[in-house]
Amino acid sequence: MATKLDYYAVLEVTREASGDELKKAYRRLAMKYHPDRNPGDASAENRFKEISEAYDILKDDQKRSAYDRYGHAAFEGGGGGFDFNGGGGFGAGGLGDIFEQMFGDMMGGGRRAKRAGADIQTQVEITLAEAFSGVKKTVTVTTRVVCEACEGTGSKDREAGVETCPSCHGAGKVRAQQGFFVVERPCPTCHGAGRVVKDPCVSCHGAGTVQRARTLDVAIPAGVEDGTRIRMTGEGESGGKGVAPGDLYVHISVAQHELFQRDGSNIYCRVPLRMAQAALGADIEVPVIDGGRASVKIPAGTQNGEHFRLRGKGFSVLRSSSRGDMYIQVSVETPQNLTKRQRELLEEFETEAGEHTKGSPEHAGFFSRVKDFFDGTKG
């Protein structure tokens, strides 16, 4: 069995990394090594699988705790290890399964390991507008499917050439005593299949599965966030006849938008204003993520960086009909390339402003403090 790298090292983070740090590291590395960006590069594909596996464990607090305590052993073995996929509790077998996995024959165990085909992963990039409204995307994945020639048995003569594994007696796993504990591992003879093939199928060479490209439709719900993982049960690799297929995990990447920035269910939009608009006030129209428009009243004397809130104009909330809010951030723009008349008007304005400082209280206050500072230095 190949030695697995430390999950923290795979994601290039420390063991004290926060959830946000893990997420950022995963996104960066997944984009770098994704098979679609590295066609034909087997090492990049393997690296992508390592990254996805590491993040799948470390992003879950319970799995991460088990990994920190027991390492990879917490998740190894065909059906052994701990299963945290039950919504925060233990796996479907509950505590009985855990004691059986830990103490084996001492607890009177001996049930056959549950087997399934391998899980596979792919990535889909969508626009911010598609994430807002939801979208259906078509993905093509290369995976293993049941061999039609042998109907998944792996045998040239189908059932006639398949026998129960003599090493594990069909269990698909073997046990070894390690001090007080009994540890289960996949059977080395049948590799967890529980059976051996004497006369292999010429199409699949005894595997019972062959590699094929498949096209699937993925329904992406409204409100989905960047980095979300969608699980498609049973759409992964086939494990052969009598074995449940694995799952397909679709990682969602949301592209940046040229106007909007998203923060959870809220949307931010930076709107530049001319100096006169900010000083005199104005009524402006701004775009909304749903494709509509919204009117915003800018009061006279608006300062650079001020925010205006538009309730219910934000992003869709996942699995809900409600929406967040939209925030308009004002950016007051200084005019450039002035005409002669514009310059004259601004010079006249500046002369008038110098005589009436109430219109710029922050400016007047700052330079008043500057004067006091220099006067104190001289004293």
UniProtKB/TrEMBL annotation:
Q: Where are the CXXCXGXG motif repeats?
A: 147-154, 165-172, 187-194, 201-208
Instruction: Please name the PROSITE patterns in this protein's record.
Output: DNAJ_1 (PS00636), DNAJ_2 (PS50076), ZF_CR (PS51188)
Read off the Pfam families from this record: DnaJ, DnaJ_C, DnaJ_CXXCXGXG
- Entry-linked InterPro entries: DnaJ (IPR012724), DnaJ_C (IPR002939), DnaJ_domain (IPR001623), DnaJ_domain_CS (IPR018253), HSP40/DnaJ_pept-bd (IPR008971), HSP_DnaJ_Cys-rich_dom (IPR001305), HSP_DnaJ_Cys-rich_dom_sf (IPR036410), J_dom_sf (IPR036869)
Compartments reported by the entry = Cytoplasm
- Provide one Gene Ontology biological process annotation: protein refolding
In residue numbers, the zinc fingers (CR-type) are 134-213
Cofactor binding, per record: Binds 2 Zn(2+) ions per monomer.
Q: Where is the CR-type domain?
A: 134-213
Q: List the record's Gene Ontology CC terms alphabetically.
A: cytoplasm
Keyword annotations for this protein? Chaperone, Cytoplasm, DNA replication, Metal-binding, Repeat, Stress response, Zinc, Zinc-finger
Cofactor names from the entry are: Zn(2+)
Known partners and oligomeric status? Homodimer.
- So what does this one do? Participates actively in the response to hyperosmotic and heat shock by preventing the aggregation of stress-denatured proteins and by disaggregating proteins, also in an autonomous, DnaK-independent fashion. Unfolded proteins bind initially to DnaJ; upon interaction with the DnaJ-bound protein, DnaK hydrolyzes its bound ATP, resulting in the formation of a stable complex. GrpE releases ADP from DnaK; ATP binding to DnaK triggers the release of the substrate protein, thus completing the reaction cycle.
Known NCBIfam families for this protein?
Answer: DnaJ_bact, PRK10767.1
Q: What protein name does the entry list?
A: Chaperone protein DnaJ
Q: Native species of this protein?
A: Acetobacter nitrogenifigens DSM 23921 = NBRC 105050
Highest lineage ranks of the organism?
Bacteria, Pseudomonadati, Pseudomonadota, Alphaproteobacteria, Acetobacterales
